[in-house]
Amino acid sequence: MKKNSVLIWALLLVVVIGGGFFLSKKLNNENAGNDIAAETPETEDKDKEDSSSSDNQDSSNSSLDSIQNYIEVDKTLLPDFKLVNANDEEVSINEYYGKFVVINFWASWCPPCKAEMPDLQNLHNEFEKGDDNVLLSVNLTDGQRETKEKADKFLNENNYDFNLFYDYDGLGFSLFNVQSVPSTFFIDEKGYARGVIIGLTSQKDINTVLETMK
Fold this sequence. Notes:
This protein has one domain (about 5-214): Glutaredoxin (3-Layer(aba) Sandwich). The protein has an eight-stranded mixed β-sheet with strand order 1-8-7-4-5-6-2-3, sandwiched between helices. The chain is globular, with a radius of gyration of 18 Å. It has helices at about 5-20, 25-30, 50-65, 110-130, 150-155, 170-175, 205-214, and strands at about 70-75, 80-85, 90, 100-105, 135-140, 165, 185, 190-200. The chain has about 210 residues and is an alpha+beta fold. Helix 3 (about 50-65) packs antiparallel against helix 7.
């Protein structure tokens, strides 16, 4: 594993400087208010042809409003980055482009993370049946409070087998400006960040967000 090499740290610096800010402004603005809520999409005057589309937008927005801890973010292209998977292989995130990507950040010491794991496993099983979506599970493997051994033990004891990655250097957490776990991010098929659920989520809520992205 080359996580401590000068090259990887140099790349880390470039990626974080280039893209790590992409959620910070939005999240800070939202967190400054009393509640976390979805943004209302911009509306325009349209002719009668577009009335059904407008109704769909209103319906989608209403669905997102029901997810109180969801934040819609400005579409921002996600820089490519690599994480280490369960086979100790470095995997480039852009390998998943072409699909809608759900990235869940978690740690085994986190009670809400544990509580949502059964739903995430069900979601992974559902995604495996098709080609449109993929769930990536990113563990906060800081080597202190969380270690690979602790993460693996928790997953093995509960028979979870989704796509697992270890964020040894904190690259993913820095890039996404993760402030707390669990946090679940949504990336569209072209690699653009679209939104985040901060805190406990469910299979239903994740599917609701994905439906509004398509």
